[in-house]
Design brief:
Elements lengths: L2 H12 L5 H4 L8 H13 L2 H16 L9 H17 L6 H11 L5 H8 L9 H9 L2 H10 L6 E4 L3 E3 L4 E3 L8 E4 L2 E4 L4
Antiparallel strand pairs: 1-4, 2-3, 4-5
Helix pairs in contact: 4-5, 6-7
């Protein structure tokens, strides 16, 4: 096979993937190895570029948080995209860390549910999709509480083994750091989450 027939074979394969302005640049390469190196240099960057990209992605992950205008789906999708980009540059993050990052990044309205989920043992093995779907079930409740009040001083935690008052007694489970949350004047049993 001569070099001209090799070029005519390469171009139809590359044509759908390459923008028009780059197709002529690749005609000069005679073998697949040099062609692939040229494609990687132009589109993938060199080692320094990849290292910088990896560093920037890691910083984005560390600083990841939901914006005040974001709904849970948008936060979930942004985190999914960031994790995929980190995996493409060789950065591996444990499932537990991904789930904890998602829970910590949600807006203040999700605080009650994130506290519960961060303390559940299955958070270490649950996929991000499953965690998102479990939290999604509480979205109507969260939307209702965020529209009724934004006061952050209405949550109290009880962790003693027995609390008595003139009107009621609350027993909590021994060894369980959090078992009831009092919010907006009502008791929520965390075991039900």
């Amino acid at each position: 096979m001569d070099s001209q027939s090799t070029q005519t074979i390469k171009l139809p394969i590359l044509q759908p993937a390459l923008p028009n302005e780059h197709q002529l640049k690749f005609n000069s390469y005679k073998d697949a190895k040099t062609l692939m190196q040229a494609i990687e240099n132009i589109f993938g960057g060199n080692t320094a570029t990849k290292k910088t990209q990896k560093k920037l992605l890691k910083q984005q992950y560390e600083n990841f948080a939901a914006s005040s205008t974001e709904v849970i789906e948008q936060t979930y999708e942004r985190l999914q995209k960031l994790i995929s980009q980190l995996e493409m540059v060789g950065e591996v993050i444990s499932q537990k860390e991904i789930n904890q990052k998602f829970l910590r990044s949600l807006s203040q309205e999700w605080t009650m549910h994130t506290i519960v989920w961060r303390n559940k043992p299955e958070v270490e093995t649950l996929s991000l999709d499953d965690l998102f779907n479990n939290l999604k079930a509480y979205e109507l409740e969260v939307k209702g509480t965020s529209s009724s009040t934004t006061n952050s001083h209405n949550v109290a935690f009880l962790s003693s083994s027995s609390t008595k008052s003139a009107t009621r007694e609350v027993n909590t489970a021994q060894g369980c750091g959090i078992s009831y949350i009092i919010t907006r004047g009502r008791f929520l049993d965390l075991a039900s989450f």
